[in-house]
Amino acid sequence: MREVAIVAFGQSDHRRDTAETSEVEMLMPVLHQALDAVGLRAGEIDFTCSGSCDYLAGRAFSFTMALDGVGAWPPISESHVEMDGAWALYEAWTRLLTGEAETALVYSYGKSSPGDLREVLTRQLDPYYVAPLWPDSVSLAALQAQALLDAEVTRDRGGPGDIVADERALAGVAARSRTAAEGNPHAQLAGSPPPETLLDEPYLVRPLRRHDCPPVGDGAAAVVLAAGDTARRLCRRPAWIRGMDHRTEAHSLGVRDLTRSPSSRLAAERAGAFEAPVDLAELHAPFTSQELILRRELRLGADVRVNPSGGALAANPMMAAGLIRLGEAAAAIHRGAADRALAHATSGPCLQQNLVAVLEGEAS
Amino acid sequence: MTPAPSPEVLQAPLVVEFPFTRSLGPVQSAFLTGLREHTVLGVRTTDGRVLVPPVEYDPVTADELADLVEVAPTGTVTTWAWNPSPRRGQPLGTPFAWVLVRLDGADTALLHALDAPGPDAVRTGMRVRIRWAAEREGAITDIACFEPYDGAEGGEAVPHRGAFTDPVSGIVAPARLDYTYAPGRAQSRYLRALADHTTYGERCPSCRKVYVPPRGACPTCGVATEEQVEVGPRGTVTTFCIVNIKARNLDIEVPYVYAHIALDGADLALHARIGGIPYDEVRMGLRVEPVWSEDGRYPDHYRPTGEPDADYDTYKEML
Q1: Buried b (16+ CB within 10 A) or exposed e, A193-225
Q2: Looking at chain A, which residue has its C-alpha nearest residue B211?
Q3: Which of B170, B176, B187 is nearest to B270 (CA)?
Q4: CA distance A129 to chain B (A)
Q5: For residue range A285-300, what is the model confidence (pLDDT) as tens digits?
Q6: Interchain contact, B177 vs A41, CB within 8 Å
Q7: Which of A140, B262, B295, B318 is 20 to 30 A from A198 via CA?
Q8: In angstroms, what CA-CA distances link A239 with A9, A140, B32?
Q9: Considering only CA atoms, which of A32, A186, A27 is closest in space to residue A108?
Q10: Interface predicted TM-score of the whole assembly (ipTM), two decimals
Q11: How many CB atoms sit inside 10 A of residue A21's CB?
Q12: Model pTM greater than 0.90?
């Protein structure tokens, strides 16, 4: 199979409100950050794919405005997914695998500040039985968290061990993530009191406290993909995509076991994640409880560095946070801080859809 | 070059509202009609599980499902979340618990609200029953909410024909989202200048083209445009169409002309209505100028200037 790598990554500073810039104005510096890293201009890219969502912007076909940022005239080969950019990256990866393109630019962006995100996200739910009740995104995550707490201990016999899921463990995920984000200049939230102090905070939607939830914010990300020798020419240490897969689960929350994520497990298996140990994982877990579920499904033991970027708890720009996980994992390989990394992205309520990629750097 | 001012960012409320009309298949129709009649229906899968709420295709096997059964209006909470501040559209206006409830006789759970005095009154495993809405129409909101119930567990699911008089065949799901629209730097500058009857374009530093209205980027070069250039006010009709359909809420007599207008100094045509001339006399090359709207914030339409028509070569690149 043709080798494809992530050769560049750029992201914005993620902020609660970016009213001073339009989407394309927010996106353009990020595109150039990624392109400049490999010395390419937009017009030299063979395939462009983006991820975004009209419901965030409140406008139909909002992604077409962002196309001004990549120089879409004269016509380019371009595609768009109404999803997180991680899925746009998947499409670009398959395009490169076919041999129809040597390079691809993948970008995604989301501005949550114009609307009320918790309400906006209700519009992705089943329109017959669920959306008319307007259950907001934090409440749905809280249902999942309570299910996990009720299960008390999530067991995976033969895996890297049991993970105790209690409120202390959730606070531990928050504190670790936001402390790690102190080293990430793009993070929206960085720094945290210790878990014990976090537990004194009131509930937002019980059993979730504010620290269990991601910040709401605006941001953008871009990566450049390249195949084979082109990747080697553009990047000193390309992050080779060894496998990538995405899976989805039943739409109805009441059909699923919310303490599990079989789609993450299956995607990881198909991506080859279990064929050799990984030393770093970037998980798209917007809620603390989701990290505990993913750690078990992805068989990540205590020796794996999880979200050294701070993860989605430090910055969760809708439609970009998943692509950022792939970008952060690749960037760690580019700079020699990881050799084999797992990157995960999610979409939909309670980990409904999941994508897993395995990235590797060659021995230098 | 005019140095770009750092304008205060414009913002305005933007409401997106739509009554989605959705048709129901046989299974969803039976379920929602059943709610109207105080009857909760599920569907039995080919391997014997009972799904409530029912779906037309098995999420595991993808088998088509139509074997309807009736389950009890009582059930057990499988997980919950305490919502201290209810939001617009949610089932209850006072603090409540979101719950997944497995109704007696069902194997899967239904999402709804539970009316309880506080979080300490809620636990996984607690027994609940449906509180019906006073007025029911065949929608999930016919269940007003759940309420605590200390009775025994109901029985097994029993077969049901799913036949009702006057079944509902569709629902109207009103959706409303409120936004604060902010057009960004380039368009804020453009709109502010427009209020002073001045039209600004932005020049691409690479290809030197002047775009109007500016959006902060050159779509050809993919680079930021910063240099502001005053264009117009006069321009040339590059192409046009004659509109024969009356738009709702628009007080313009048909037929009228909508045109692309290349403002003097711009390299991209913008579009606007042409007035002050019979519709069948509008032509390519016609020289026009803006007529400002009553509140003066934007041109209402463009009218002929009386100048001789522009030469085709002056605007052929902008067609």
Answers
A1: bebeebeeeebbbbbbbebbbbbbbbbbbbbbb
A2: A68
A3: B187
A4: 6
A5: 999 999 999 999 999 9
A6: no
A7: A140
A8: 11, 35, 51
A9: A27
A10: 0.94
A11: 23
A12: yes
